[in-house]
Amino acid sequence: MTDLRLWYEAPAQVWTEALPIGNGRLGAMVFGETRRERLQLNEDTLWSGGPYSPVNPEALGHLEHVRELLLAGRYAEAEAEADRWLMARPLKQMPYQPAADLWIEMPDLGAVGKYRRDLDLETAIASTSFTAEGTDIRREVLATAADGIIALRLVTTRRLALRLTLTSPQAGRVHAPVPGVLRFEGHNAAAHGIEGRLAFAVEMRLFADGRIDTHSDSLAVDGASEVTILLDVATSYRRYDDVDADPVARIASRLDAAANLGWTALRARHVADHQALFSRLTIDLGHSPAERLPTDRRIAANSAAPDPALSALYVQYGRYLLLSSSRPGTQPANLQGIWNETPTPPWDSKYTTNINLQMNYWLADPANLGECIEPLLRLLEDVSVTGREVARAHYNAPGWVLHHNTDIWRATAPVDGAKWGLWPTGGAWLCVQLWDHVRFGDDSVLPRIYPLLKGCLEFIRHVLVRLPGTDMLVTAPSLSPENVHPYGAALCYGPAMDSQIIRDLIDAVIEAGARLGRDQDLRIELDGLRRRLPPDRIGHAGQLQEWLEDWDLQAPEIHHRHVSHLYALYPSSQISLERTPALAAAARRSLEIRGDEATGWGIGWRINLWARLGDGERAHAVVQRLLSPDRTYPNMFDAHPPFQIDGNFGGAAGIIEMLVQSQDGDVHLLPALPPAWPAGHVSGVRARRGIEVDVTWEAGDLLEGKLRAGTPTPIVVRYRNVRIDIVATPEGTTVRLADFRREASSR
Ligand code: FUC
Question: Whose alpha carbon is nearest atom 11 of ligand 1?
């Protein structure tokens, strides 16, 4: 079996060596220091600013002019006008913030030896152990979703002294409200002219078998061999328009309950909660001697001598990170999940909705953690309200719109600059993704998702414009995220990706409506609308055209990290090797021209694309590129660079996509198995229609597959080009290589 621990022989020197823990809401980076341990703390609602509207009242008056310039081919002028008039006020959104640091000092330790720190993905506990002059010292720290707090336990074999402090990069002050407790009370900062309106608190409660001295800004412990620290952070955030909660009261209710339980019960409840979800999927891709190395050295060694178990660990780490950064009731995972060290994080550590937020949830369903999507659904419910104001004010349109970014205040107007921000289909992409979650078998959310889809399509229908001289409908202004075309701008009309997303949205509305028995009269109209969207086109180099015109090879960045037009191949299934072979060949050509070198998430996307093209060898080469020190930090966080968590989720999803696919209504076993993983096993992968799949293979060939469904479900299972009809049962229905051979020879 694959050992599911990240481990190291030295403390973290920098943040991307520290180990992340999280319960969806609270996060900590554990450095594993000996004399001065640091836990860097985050809470998912602590962002700068306060409730605000990003609407630019002047935008609407200039929209038509920008459209006219675009349709006249005056792209650069259109983009300049858009920059001047159509963008949000303020032009930037609010950044995600770090909350505090807990410091544990053990000043009088002697020389340290036998050091080890690790993160056990199976228990979701980070441990540090070492000896100091004959004394064994061990710390365990966890962020529990069962009880909502962070708990740390320190055990030593000799009674020691320690000192605890709390600091924060935010404004506020520390005090000790009662003995044994330290509390930081503060408030968030303003940003881009939006006043900081959040109050927040961080509280630490100390329990020890030694003497505790409480000072105004620190706690000192003497003669202790067992120490427990309970920690919590809370803000006054309730919703994007309500910041009146009481953070101290929120903390008190959780820490009181946790203190009553005590360390042993907290730990047991945490492990049980984590394992109920984590243990649903197992994966074994083979073994190598590198497995015995510490994790940082494994990453460094992987390029020279492939370490298949590291790829398996990457999948499980992705699942761990998702469970730790996105749970029902929390905020969705942002660009850094939940972990952020700095008040000025890259891209503000927000929700970028032109690939990144979507990619954060690619893993959830296939990796059998569908419940982790709930925060994304709530975010969409929020922006379907805030985005209504923007749709009306910026486009005079009904429905709602989300462009390429949002923040905790659910701002949806176009930001940053027209060449990035003026893209109207970010919300539509997320809607289609939620619909795919329903296709994975979660019908319970359909009544919540359907109105979102409809409101989004309402907006889109209103803003599509007829392409002069044709009957086609296109988005304008828009862009193909964030790629500049040969006419000195990104701004354009009708980029391929928009039409692809809108086709999926229309299909989703029709199918979801049919399941709910609603709006059947809309169907004919929507079919008509769908036919008027420009179809995908193949350009002169045999490539899938990114734009309406055959511009791809003249674009200044032909190796651009975004591969937006390949959306149709993955995550969508509009393009498929079997159903649309010519377009699939064109997508392959585009991917070849683009190249495999990209940012972390760009690489993550490419793994999924090669998997959809059935090219396991190529997909594996890209996995190897991702699992190298260039794109994976020592703590296995994805390197854009800098750290961005989307690559972790996209890469892990890509590895699963190589083993099981279900986008075409059947379950396809080993669609892109690479020669580098000749024997292996995966169990508990989720396929669409709520089917759970186990697969075992040997010598590069299928041994058997097992399919389970909650109720007996007829399903087609595919291996290579052979298909077998089975009924998946709750106990599991097995298909063997011999069954496929028999089927093939009887044809
Ligand atoms: C998009 C990407 C960048 C980065 C940012 C957060 O704008 O083009 O590479 O990932 O999002």
Answer: 352
Cβ-contact 299, 307 below 8 angstroms? no
494 token code pair: 């009708």
pLDDT over threshold 80, residue 388? yes
The full DSSP string for 342-383 is -SS-GGGG-EETTTHHHHHTTTTTTTT-GGGGHHHHHHHHHH
Please say whether the beta carbons of 169 and 98 come within 8 A. Answer: yes
CB 679 within 8 Å of CB 286: yes
Confirm whether pTM is higher than 0.85: yes
3-state secondary structure of 133: coil
Spatial strand order of the sheet with 667-669 comes to 660-661, 667-669, 713-719, 722-728
For helices 59-71 and 75-85, angle between their N-to-C axes, nearest 10 degrees: 170
Residue 17: is its pLDDT beyond 80? yes
Pocket of ligand 1 (CB under 6 A): 335, 347, 352, 356, 482, 561, 599, 601, 640, 644
- The predicted structure's pLDDT at residue 1: 62
pLDDT (mean) for 719-724: 97
Asked if 97 and 48 count as a contact pair (C-beta separation under 8 A), the reply is yes
Both structure tokens of 393: 């004010």
Query: Which residues in 46-71 are b (16+ Cβ under 10 Å) and which e?
Result: bbbbbbbebbbeebbebbeebbebbb
- Paired tokens of 658: 């190589």
Q: Mind giving me the DSSP string for 264-318?
A: HHHHHHHHHHHHHHHTT-EEE----GGGGS-HHHHHHHTTTS--HHHHHHHHHHH
| pLDDT at 485 (0 to 100) | 98
Q: Distances in Å between the alpha carbon of 52 and those of 330, 350, 408, 593?
A: 21, 16, 10, 43
CA dist., res. 720 & res. 668, Å (int) = 8
In whole angstroms, what is the distance from residue 607 CA to residue 315 CA?
Answer: 13
Determine the pLDDT at residue 747. Answer: 80
Q: What digits encode the pLDDT tens for the residues 588-635?
A: 999 999 999 999 999 999 999 999 999 999 999 999 999 999 999 999
Ligand 1 mean position to 407 CA, how many Å? 15
Q: What does the alpha-carbon distance between residue 462 and residue 391 come to, in Å, rounded to a whole number?
A: 10
In 3D, which of 47, 48, 38, 36 has the Cα closest to residue 15?
Answer: 38
Distance from the alpha carbon of residue 601 to the mean position of ligand 1, in angstroms: 9
Check if the beta carbon of residue 484 is closer than 8 Å to that of residue 467.
no
DSSP for 481-514 reads: TT--BTTTBS-BS--HHHHHHHHHHHHHHHHHHH
> Whose alpha carbon is nearest atom 6 of ligand 1?
347
* Contact between residue 676 and residue 620 where contact means Cβ atoms under 8 Å apart: yes
For the CA of 420, the closest atom of ligand 1 is 7
**Average pLDDT, stretch 154-180?**
97
Across the chain, mean pLDDT equals 98
C-alpha–C-alpha distance, residues 608 and 483, integer Å: 21
Q: Tokens for 339?
A: 């972990």
Tell me the angle at which helices 308-325 and 616-626 cross, rounded to the nearest 10 degrees: 70
Under the banding of pLDDT at 50, 70 and 90, the label for residue 110 is: confident
CA of 97 to the centre of ligand 1 (A): 19
Q: Which tokens belong to 690?
A: 């709520």
118: phi then psi, degrees, rounded to nearest 5: -155, 165
Is 111 exposed, middle or buried, given 0-12, 13-18 or 19+ CB atoms closer than 10 A? exposed
pLDDT surpasses 90 at 107: no
For 289-344, write each residue's pLDDT tens digit.
999 999 999 999 999 999 999 999 999 999 999 999 999 999 999 999 999 999 99
For ligand 1, pick from 355, 484, 599, 640 the residue to mutate: most ligand atoms within 8 Å of CB.
355
Instruction: Give the per-residue pLDDT at 579.
Output: 97
Q: What is the C-alpha separation between 584 and 343, in angstroms, rounded? A: 44
pLDDT at 675 over 80: yes
How close is the Cα of 633 to the center of ligand 1, in Å? Answer: 18
